[in-house]
Amino acid sequence: QEYTALKLKVVEWAPKAADALKGKIPEDASVYLCPATLRPETMYGQVCCFVGPSLSYGVFRASEKEYFVITERAARNMAYQGIFEKEGVPEKAAEVKGSDLIGTLVTAPLSFHPQVRVLPMDTVLATKGTGVVTSVPSDSPDDYAMVTELAKKADFYGIKKEWAELEIIPIIQTPTSDLLAPHLVKKLKINSPKDAKQLQEAKELAYKEGFYQGVMKVGDFKGEKVEVAKPKVREQLIKNGDAFAYSEPENKVVSRSG
Ligand code: ZZB
């Protein structure tokens, strides 16, 4: 699986994360949360960054001045992909629990919301991507269901309501909608992030319709088909130093070319 890993730079740590990192990272280094995505063309619509509250994250040294917050598993993969200065064995500078990252303020490259908060999502898998997920509720049904839930039950989740209420701006026009994920969530009567089966169906529909019939509504490739714009946005992000290629060894054996 070939992902685009984004670099969301930490602007302000949540207090518990600041404690966990104290004295472990050089003062002048930048630390990034690095969500892995298959939809770089949707980055204009980022509204928050999800971590699994019960997952454990490492802060890994990518170079003298750059550190990445990702799962140990992702770091081990990255160490063999020329992503870190040092090849082979990742260098872990600190460890932090997902729950302690909640509330951290990070940049969101390309987004209409230049800075977003780190928020909890229980369904983030430790076994996929980097364990960090950037949230695009306009085009991801899972993300729409989760931000809706977070805004509804902010106290329960220990967050500020306004962190989950950033405006959801249309990014991609498809034949049915320019806010495909909210449209599908309503249509399939999805009420919560726990409606796993319907969410899976909504995700598949959103991927298909977005990719084959979507047209960019915003950004440098406005008016172009998603299919065409996707690699261009990815290239732009990478060129600007806001992202890098990250690939994941397949879990299952999938043969497409025979
Ligand atoms: C931004 C984005 C915007 C995403 C969108 C999807 C969509 P997959 O494998 O088919 O589920 N993701 C990445 N890592 C994890 C994880 N560890 N746990 C849970 N979810 C994760 O697709 C991968 C997508 O799942 C990634 O792309 C990421 O969310 C999320 F508009 O990043 B995506 C219709 C989907 N739209």
What does this structure look like?
The protein is an alpha+beta fold. It has one domain (2-247): Valyl/Leucyl/Isoleucyl-tRNA synthetase, editing domain (Isoleucyl-tRNA Synthetase, domain 2). It contains eight helices and 14 strands. A nine-stranded mixed sheet has the order 8-6-7-3-2-9-10-5-11, with helices on both faces. A hairpin with a 2-residue loop joins strand 6 and strand 7 (66-70). Helix 4 packs across helix 6 (180-187) and helix 6 packs antiparallel against helix 7 (196-213). The model has no long low-confidence stretch (mean pLDDT 96). Residues 36-39, 42, 124-125, 128-129, 131, 133-134, 136, 139-140, 203, 206-207 line the site of ligand ZZB. Ligand ZZB binds at residues 36-39, 42, 124-125, 128-129, 131, 133-134, 136, 139-140, 203, 206-207.
Give descriptors for this structure:
Isoleucyl-tRNA Synthetase, domain 2, three-stranded antiparallel sheet, 258 residues, nine-stranded mixed sheet, globular, binds ligand ZZB, alpha+beta, single chain, 8 helices, 14 strands
